[in-house]
Amino acid sequence: MQDVMLTAVGLVLLIAAADLLVKGASSLASRYGVSPLMIGLTVVSFGTSMPEMLVSVTAGLRGNADLAVANVLGSNLFNVLVVLGVAAMIYPLRVQSSTVVSEIPFSLSAAILLGFLANAALFTTKPELSISRLDGGILLLFFLLFMLYIFSISTNGGAEDSQPQTSYPVSRSVAYILVGVVGLYLGGDWAVDGAVALARGWGVDDALIGLTIIAIGTSLPELMASAVAAYRKEADIAVGNVVGSNIFNILWILGVTASIRNLPFDALSNIDIIMVIVATMLILLAVVSSRAATISRIWGAFFVCVYIAYMVYVVQRS
């Protein structure tokens, strides 16, 4: 009963915190003329990636590499297929041309880079797969390049503007963001703790927990933030949050984790990396197939169905 209550309280806190975060971020975007897409790619995506950061770094320090890697890959899959899927079903998401041309391909490249680095040992005389400290440094280098790109297009006005209507005083907006980030962190932590305790009580395998329950739990902030953003018709924040979070997860979180400690890599996880690549390409396909460059409700439902099918496969695989 205590685990159920902990999970429920965590979920409620996530919803409330996500609403505050989106309000504060949208208000700052409006007041300072920064496009909502930039806010989604930076402030919101960083804030909602905090639970993944906590889980992966802790798992890496404790020597549980499978959990650290599975958490990131599972979260990225959930972000694209469920977070974007649910958000699109709430309100069709118009995707900016800059996102299609730059940010989504960057996210795709990050997944491909991870796959290459994790399997680089296959081209050596000692094919022991791992994400080494050197690999972690390479991931962090690409993350730095991504942040420089974000800074350049924000200062040069490279992003298309779609300014939100509501604007609060700066102090109130900052307070909303800070409280929202803290609330997302605590809510995600409580929800995951409760869910993991329930799962282990039911006899579910730890490896499966990493790719499913923990990955889903740590992605709940993204889901809540993007769903609220879609409800408020802030499509740029909803899309930017997902794309930014996926880039943060691979390049920043795994980069930091691997830099601290080498992460042994299970070859079976290559299937999950391939699925992340496929899911990212589905975003492009959904946008290209739409005349209005949107992810429609039908595509959103399709995304969710793909995720459910893959989770069925993961459970059977385990």
CATH architecture label: Up-down Bundle
User: How many helix segments?
Assistant: 12
Main β-sheet, in a few words?
2 strands, antiparallel
Order of helices and strands: HHHHEHEHHHHHEHEH
Level-1 CATH class name = Mainly Alpha
Please tell me the total number of domains: 1
Count of β-strands = 4
Strand order of the largest sheet: 1-4
Per the CATH scheme, the topology name is A middle domain of Talin 1
Structural class: mainly alpha
CATH homologous superfamily descriptor: NCX, central ion-binding region
Per DSSP, what share of the residues sits in E-state strands of 2 or more residues? under 5%
**Mean pLDDT rating:** 85
- Rg of Cα set: 18 Å
Note the overall shape: globular
Low-pLDDT parts are 159-165
Q: What proportion of the residues is helical, as a percent range?
A: over 70%
Distance between the termini: 27 Å
Q: What does this entry look like structurally?
A:
The chain is an all-alpha fold and 318 residues long. The chain has one domain: NCX, central ion-binding region (A middle domain of Talin 1), CATH 1.20.1420. The protein has twelve helices and four strands; from the N terminus they run ααααβαβαααααβαβα. The strands form two sheets. Strands 1-4 form a two-stranded antiparallel ribbon. Strands 2-3 form a two-stranded antiparallel sheet. The two termini are 27 Å apart. About 2% of the residues have low confidence.
